[in-house]
Design goal:
The complex is a heterotrimer of chains A (about 375), B (about 290) and C (about 350). By secondary structure, chain A is an alpha/beta fold. Chain A has helices at about 5-20, 45-65, 85-100, 110-120, 150-165, 180-190, 215-225, 235-245, 290-300, 310-330, 335-345, and strands at about 30-40, 75, 80, 105, 125-130, 145, 170-175, 200-205, 225-230, 250-255, 275-280, 350-355, 355-360, 365-370, 370-375, 380-385. Chain A starts with a helix and ends with a strand. The chains are: A alpha/beta (about 375), B mainly alpha (about 290), C mainly alpha (about 350).
Amino acid sequence: MRNWKKALGVAAAVAMAATTLPTAVFAEGEETFKIGIIGPMTGDYAQYGTNVYNAAVVAAEEINAAGGINGYQVEILAAGDDQGDPEKAVNAYNDLLDKGMQMLCGTVTSGACIAVGAEAAETTFLFTPSGSAVDCITAGSNEFRMCFTDPMQGSKSAEYIAEKGLATKVAVLYDSMADYNVGVHDAFVEAAPEFGLEVVADEAYTTDSNTDYSVQLGKIKESGAELLFLPNYYSDNALILQQAADIDLDVIIFGVDGMDGILSVENFDTSLAEGVMLLTPFSATAEDEATVNFVTAYKAANNDETPNQFAADAYDVLYAIKAAAEDAGITPDMSNEDISAAMSASMLNIEIEGLTGTAKWTEDGECDKSPKAVVIKDGVYEMME
Amino acid sequence: MSFISYLKDGISLGSVYAIIALGYTMVYGIAKMLNFAHGDVIMVGAFVILTAITKAGLSPLLSVVLGVIICTVLGVVIEMVAYRPLRKASSNLAVLITAIGVSYLLQNLALLIFGADAKSFVPVINFPSLTLFDGRLTIKGVTIVTILACIIIMVGLTLFVSKTKPGRAMQAVSEDRDAAQLMGVNVNATISLTFAIGSGLAAIAGLLLCSAYPTLTPYTGAMPGIKAFVAAVFGGIGSIPGAMVGGILLGVIEIFGRAYISSQVADAIVFAVLIIVLLVKPAGLFGKNIQEKV
Amino acid sequence: MKKMNKTTKNNFINYGLVLVLFAVAQTLSATGNLSNLLQGLLVPLCVYTIASISLNLVVGFSGELSLGHAGFMCVGAYSSALFSNVVGDALPSVPRLILAILVGAAVAAVFGILIGVPVLRLRGDYLAIVTLAFGEIIKNLVNILYVGVDENGIHVTTNSSGLKLAAGGKKIMKGALGISGTSTLYKDIKPYFFLIGVILILITLFIVQNLVHSRSGRAIMAARDNRIAAESIGINVTKYKLLAFTVSAALAGVAGVLYAHNISMLKVSIFDYNLSIMILVYVVLGGIGSIRGSIIATIVLYALPEMLRGFSTYRMLIYAIVLIIMMLFNWAPAAIDWRKRVLEKIHNKLPKKEAA
């Protein structure tokens, strides 16, 4: 029987109907700057992608309320969902180009960012809030980054631990199947000996078995480590901290920017995170005016959810784009290539006071800002010297 | 000592796999289909329980009952809408693919309703932990409850299937659906009942999974679902005691692999052991070896 | 012209279908009517079409449920990407790509034999779970590999700091960070990747259709329909099943090669059981054993979630619902009966045509 033809016909019709539907959220008569966001909106990493998207929308609304960029409004296109997959990220990138994207705030995850970076090189301005692998922005001179790189976080962490004399025997527990975690881990382990740190336990888990850490934590306990380095995202770290408490593992816990967000995990017992140290550019509980305003606006727009550092990076990306666009004097009628070239040149001239610190950019697209070390005390971050 | 400690960790992990595998094997044994959406029903159960406790302020017991009821209804509805029309399809792969569709559906519904952010599960089970060997070995209360629940469910299911009338109807449907129909068994009702029980158990499995490993996202059920499927095959698909033994063995192998070989390739070790077992015993540990007839 | 027999005609329809789709895509592209999204989908569509045709060889013609197809794509992708990166500029891109395809296919075929020998002793769902297990094992093992190259040759270890390279050495494979930049090695022929993909589909079709309609193919199908009867007339069932399994693995490897060279980031976590299941969905929806069905279902189902991007957050939800409805519509006996009745009604209303 060859009945599939009809069924597939039905499906094709559905698909065609879908493409003809209006997509942009706020279509206006006059010209706007169209900015696309790519990241995981569904799938295992959806929490990071949605944070970036929501924060970019908050920033765009603020910018528009204050008169836009060079007199033009900013429009955030419908989110490009990539589920953290490089191939789907490229599809999302192409789709956003069809929808008129002129600048890209993305992608959120590293692997996807490398794939999109190769496509966007010298054609569309790419500014990733959180793609932290080195190769994310090496494909073209029009690619910039807001966050720290993996190697930088890994070696800075080792340096900081050694400098402050926090420990000499360190242990690591990381997800060996996720690019971000592996990137930071590899850099940390390579840098540790240079700073006189001894890695006494180097334990891994995989994305497929990220619930039970009993064996690894047991070995870390036996190894006599004084400090446990956790280069993972906060959702895994929340479980690790719970299980570490179960076996009374008494070590200093040290994390990197992925740890940020742990205090806002719903129902999480924040006393477990007491004394955790992390190098992070952002703190949602900071009391400076910019952070308070951002967190309030974000919560109001998003069911009272607390933004994490992904959101803060995305918010800063939008303001950096604004600063560079004003420096370059670009207008929406320019081609992507022209915008890209003008923006890339202006990126080197700007300096912004963002949520994640004072930032400038180097010619290879890296953000020059210093990480802040914080320690969790009474359920809030406290700056460390 | 570390060996016993690892064994304990393995049993703790395995008991969680076992309780999921019991529901899996129940549906597989009787409806003869791999219900890929089972893990996602577990996730739904856990979300219902968590929401009932934290948002509606219900008591834990009431919340669990609510979770069981909702999952039972959900299981029956899924079977009626998505699986039943395909029961007589020319290939049994059709219903497998539909189950995958249902799995995507549940995950994405949960994503829209509950959001993507990971949530910590609230402690529901306050059972005292057991300390042995002068405090050198502690068995957590959740583990004890999970193992007890496994045993109760295993014995209960075995008795139900062998001693009660609907249970024997299930056996008949499992052996030969058409013959059972001729003997006056209501096949549709029997399979609905199977899904009702399997999905109700999924809510309990969700509670125990999230109590042991207290984190919850829309994708929480997927991987444990696959692991439980492996456990069910390990024990011999369709065998109720096999599911329990398979689950516990799987947990123990996983922990031993991590402890004595490498935590990076622990998953590979689990699967390698599974392959070896199946090559030696092609129908699993407790499975029936069916002789093919011409 | 001699009258073609039915199978030959069927085969030519399949080649024709691929060529027509290619021509349509090229025409649209040349006249600027193809959106960036569709343009970008062309090569991935070739990848998954090859994968689903090759899986259909095992699931449809050999009758074995395999859930480890992604594993073969994985070894094909990684071995060929390694090859391309190690060889680098020593060879011009066209011969390099051809060799890379052969390397990927050969390595995947070797894995097909290694896995097929033990696995094909099992039946049904047990075979399914063991193939799934092998797929996950491959993913897990590839994930821990670090490979680098320097003037002393190729170095392989399982951790980053263990990779000691001489000055000027290059890390190619970095564990979970995978292999990046493969597609940039082929910048000069990137615009022709769709053409290359279509040629690979045609080769795949040629291999699969000839195998199916050969003596071996009839033995394979006889074994599927009744293993014991086939054995009783002297067919070496295991040998033929292994043949189908190995060819299928090699072709999946080719799909992996195309994937790895089209994208500049290869990471192992995408080659998980979900990918295997996705390809199985294409095969089953298209009709088990129908090669044309596999081609069309792959195109529709791969493109569907991309076309649904306009629905933003509801996209995957709608995809799930459409998938369930299509499965019910295609496979449920009640739906098939209903469709037949409707078709008959239409047919009766039309003036009768004489078959040529």
